[in-house]
Task: structure prediction
Amino acid sequence: MIVCVLGMHKSGTTLVAEMLHHSGVHMADVPEHLGYDASNTFERHETQAINRDLLDDVSIPTLRAWLKRSAEPLAAGYPLNADSISIVLRGRLRDRLRTASVDPLRTLAERLDDRHGRWGFKDPRTCLTYCAWMRALPDHRVVAVYRPFDEVLTRYGVEWMSPVRLARVVHSYLLHNEMLVEHLARRSGDHVVVRYDEVMRDGDELARLSEYVGLPLVDRREPTMYRARSTPTDGELPVRLPRAVVDRVRSVEAALDAHRSR
Result:
């Protein structure tokens, strides 16, 4: 069994990958004594490297990411994750994925199949590159994770955002989640969609995930790690945005909710 976890940065994909890993789906070779704040995001180094390569010439990084492109790896061995709000040129990305060879992806999948049998991978960049992975992987299951827009904004530190940073976060949210909706539509129901805030509130989301992967899940939720939570009294976004942007956000959230309820 192969499990591909899809979802944008700061949306709960690490928690889902951690639970799958501890429930018998090998998600990554990671130093498990390190937590999320010590850079352990349960991402497979090989799949992350492939995704970074696919996105390398179709993205405009932040100045910070460009300046730190040669920085030392983080504690868990990953390169600095400073590209989560890169501006991705969608047209160039489609051209890149259309012409990219998927042989390295197939070779990696075969090797992991031989080594683990039951394995998976998680990397928010896969929301953008999944068209290539879909061509390369044999039969696999897709677990999609999403988070309400207001929580993602707050998680990125909206209270001190510059207009440029805010625009990048909005771009990243829409790009990742609109492409996620496209991927789910192509899979015609062969997926499960979970919503991070609901995962943290009760067990129904975990029960659906457990049923889909066919495994009892080890609960790795930690309430103190649920940061930037929204409350029932929240009525407005934490920032003022153009109506067209808000409408687009609400549209993609509604589409993900529809997939989740199927």
Observations:
- The beta strands are 2-6, 59-60, 87-88, 119-122, 141-146, 192-195.
